[in-house]
Amino acid sequence: MVITMRDPYLMHGGDYNPEQWLAMPEILEQDIDRFLEAGINTVTLGVFSWAKLEPKEGIYDFDWLAERIDKLYEKGISVILATPSGARPHWLAERYPQVLRVDERGKRQLFGGRHNHCLTSPVYREKVGRIDRKLAERFGAHPAVKLWHISNELGGDCHCGLCQAAFRNWLRERYQTIENLNDRWCTTFWSHTYDSFDQVEAPSAIGESSLMALNLDWKRFVTDQTISFVEQEIRAIHEGGSDKPTTVNMMYRFEGLDYGKLAGAVDLVSWDSYPLWHKESEWDTARDTAFWHDVMRGLKKKPFLLMESCPSSTNWQSVSKLKKPGMLEASSLQSIAHGSQGVLYFQMRQSRGASEKFHGAVIDHYGGSDTRTFREVCGVGRMLGKLGELAGCTTGSRVAILYDWDNLWAMKNAQGPRNKGLHYEECVDKSYRALRRLGLNVDIIDQSASLEGYRFAAAPMQYLFRPGFAQKIRSFVETGGTFVMTYWSGVVDENDRCFLGGRPADLTDVFGLRALEIDGLYDEEENAALTLEPEAGRPGWLSFMKERYACKYLCELVSPLGARPLMVYGKDFYAGEPALLRNSCGKGLAYYICADMEQKFYDDLYENLIAEAGITSGWNLEIPEGVEICSRENEDFVYWFVQNYNRYEVKVQLPQGDVIFGDKKGELRPFGSVILRVKKTL
Ligand code: GLA
Ligand code: ZN
Fold first, then answer.
1. 552: DSSP letter
2. Using 50, 70 and 90 to split pLDDT, how confident is the model at 534?
3. Residue 538 pLDDT grade (very low, low, confident, very high; cuts 50, 70, 90)
4. Is 575's pLDDT higher than 90?
5. Does residue 7 register a pLDDT over 80?
6. What does the pLDDT look like over 305-339, one tens digit per residue?
7. If pLDDT is split at 50, 70 and 90, which confidence band does 536 have?
8. Counting atoms of ligand 1 from 1, which one is nearest the CA of 315?
9. How far apart are CA 339 and CA 299, in angstroms?
10. For the CA atoms of the chain, what is the radius of gyration?
């Protein structure tokens, strides 16, 4: 469900904790005034309010919340209502210790922190369900409430007896017999064969940790258990009579849950973005953040929501760096450019004590509106206020990059071929940067996603192939797509068992080669890929590639079975062996990159492949270094976002169209942006 389809505005606001200020009504009054000044139209309530909503077991006090929601609504401010399950009150843990998590050494945690309860505990589920139902009964139909925010930043695992038992049931369902499990997990190795499901324990540093398939299944189980917890919360909301859409807020580079799967449990994907701006280069940070926006959009191939961002500095990063003037506008607009339905902050008002009192907020301890942060937030409010027509716009993309949690877990957990670092994220990033510098919108998708509609796809280091993935690649190529795969792909199945009979599994004919061995390089070592002279039958564009590109970390050796080598290694005993190959298969092309190549290699290669595939971003003018280009569209218009992440002014030549934000001549100050509206032609 896309919320803004019904509401043509972009959201602006964030996490708001009036429960911390109930004893100071003048502060609550002041909050509303400030919200109106800053163009705030949405606040998230109730994220950690359980102790105030149910001060004693079964005694609910919702009146303070009702009063706040009514007040906000009166002033035209909408509410995202959270379920309070992200942190529990003392009485709950005291009375029912089973709600507290047990660590992998079997130690039950004391009360404290947040996000650390057992998601299996029937007591926890029941108490959460009860309060969720009651919240839905009371507020579910309130016109101010637009969206349910389920729990908060879900993550982590629990090793208690209840979770272990649930895990065994999960395994029974998956494998049916213990013999089957033993076979799939390769437990003959080191005599770790199980006699029954009852012997299985969750992976632990003081127990079993060398069965990679167990580790992998535990992670899948944790995802499924989290999803079932979320679904139970959503059911409770429905039982309480509310059918408003739901979301969970996800996190940057979070590996604990398969977000590809979790996304399916809710209507809208949202995430919390806290980039480390003003490090070496804003351009690097911008591209990294852009990648994660695109991950979030790719989860449902739909607009997402920036649920949290910081208006100034966080207090949990190693250095609390302020956002320099202009960065709030740039980073906020960047989220919209990549498909967000709004800009929300953590937090609206800075708390007075405890652990987040120095975390940036729209309103700080001083309380006035004459602060730099507040002025910049007002600027964002004015900007978003003028951009309502972007609400509900979608992102068109013909190119995709594969990024899959099962693959990530398995590859990082495997011993070898380079325990010192596979440099996987960098490998993905290189493909991403090479495509983005051409101004192309890029979808980041997992192996379960459809490849339909794309004309080019890159699969960096797909070590694990989920069932059906190889077939998907085959049909994609056969029907005319260009598919790029790298070294260390198609190595294991979904149980981390090596495929027999040659890799990339089931695709040796599609790529026209067989991978033989892979060489790990020491950090200081380097090899090179040398471009072969173009000859008849080889693509002419090869002459536009440089003669030599550096490669590091991993070099795979392959034997061509029909594919044409386009580059060869420069040294070592495999000098002269292929480093880049191309194979025609059906109507399409399959490229295989054998080593961890430098960025420039990807830039040059993809520029050529994209042109060869006849794909254009629609932006035909030059894109200067450090400038990000994105587009969103609706039936009538394409909206181009141009953003300068250089520390100096840049002049960007703009195509014909209406500049609806920023400088009409395309003169972009550092962190400056332009939005251009171009009428679609039939
Ligand atoms: C997370 C949490 C918030 C808050 C912020 C601080 O994103 O969801 O409750 O702690 O971090 O940056
Ligand atoms: Zn548990």
1. E
2. confident
3. low
4. yes
5. no
6. 999 999 999 999 999 999 999 999 999 999 999 99
7. low
8. 12
9. 12
10. 26
Beta bridge partners of 363: 349
Q: Which residue CA neighbors atom 3 of ligand 1 most closely?
A: 346
Ligand 1 atom at minimal distance to the Cα of residue 48: 9
| Bridge partner list, 272 | 251, 308
Question: Catalytic residue at 494?
Answer: no
Catalytic residue among 19, 54, 153, 628: 153
- Which residue lies with its CA nearest to atom 4 of ligand 1? 346
SS (H, E, C) 229-298: HHHHHHHHHHHCCCCCCEEEEEECCCCCCCHHHHHHHCCEEEEECCCCCCCCCHHHHHHHHHHHHHHHHH
Q: Is 308 tagged catalytic?
A: yes
Residues with CB under 6 A from ligand 1: 152-153, 272, 274, 308, 314, 316, 346, 356, 359
Q: Which amino acid is at 154?
A: L
Confidence grade of residue 485 (pLDDT, cut at 50, 70, 90): very high
Spatial contact of 403 and 295, defined as CB atoms under 8 Å apart = yes
Residue whose CA lies nearest to ligand 1 atom number 7: 272
Mean pLDDT across the chain: 96
Q: Mapped to the 3 state alphabet, what secondary structure does 594-646 carry? A: CEEECHHHHHHHHHHHHHHCCCCCCCCCCCCCCEEEEEEECCCEEEEEEEECC
Q: Say which ligand is closest to the CA of 119.
A: 2
The pick from 308, 344, 349 for probing ligand 1's pocket by mutation, whose C-beta has the most ligand atoms within 8 angstroms, reads 308
In this structure, which amino acid lies at residue 315? Answer: N
Torsion angle defined by CA atoms of residues 370, 373, 376 and 382, in that order, rounded to the nearest 10 degrees: -70
What separation, in Å, do the N-terminal and C-terminal C-alpha atoms of the chain show? 28
User: 402: which strand partners?
Assistant: 445
